Amino acid sequence: MYYAAYRIDFYEQKISINTKYDKNDVIMVESSITNYVLVAAHVIVGSILIFFAIKAFKRTKYFPMALLVIGFTLLVLGETVIEYIFAFTGESVGKIIEEGFEIAGFIVLIIAVKKS
To answer: Is 21 helix (H, G, I), strand (E, B) or coil?
Structure first.
């Protein structure tokens, strides 16, 4: 396994990546297949949830069920897909977009529950 050590220099306010370790390395991040497996599991389980919500909406034709579908979709997209699509844009921009999707998903879910 490959480990990357992030060295944080608080005086110069920058982060540098080292592959050599010393006593100043404060955060260790494991870069392995585990992260990809967890993301895949998250997408699969989220897709199953969305699938059942769509089936319930088709069966009932109840408008709040459509809102549940939209809310769950925004949550799953924000937590998985959007996080990796915008990873190259920088930490803060990607995080803002990801959190925006998740917040929008929660708002839609709240509206769905209030309307039911």
So the answer is: coil
- The two three-digit tokens of residue 87, written as one number: 């990873």
Amino acid (one-letter) located at 32: S
pLDDT tens-digit series, residues 15-30: 445 455 555 554 444 5
Separation CA 98–CA 79 (nearest Å): 7
CA distance linking residue 97 with residue 86, whole number of Å: 8
Could you read off the pLDDT of 61-115 as tens digits, one per residue? 999 999 999 999 999 988 888 877 776 776 777 788 888 999 999 999 999 999 9
pTM score, whole prediction: 0.65
Nearest by Cα to 113 from 62, 43, 78, 49:
62
- Reading the block at residue 78, the tokens are 């924000």
Sheet holding 2-9, edge to edge: 14-18, 2-9, 27-31
Q: Enter the tokens of residue 58.
A: 């088709």
Instruction: Please count the other Cβ atoms lying within 10 Å of the Cβ belonging to residue 106.
Output: 14
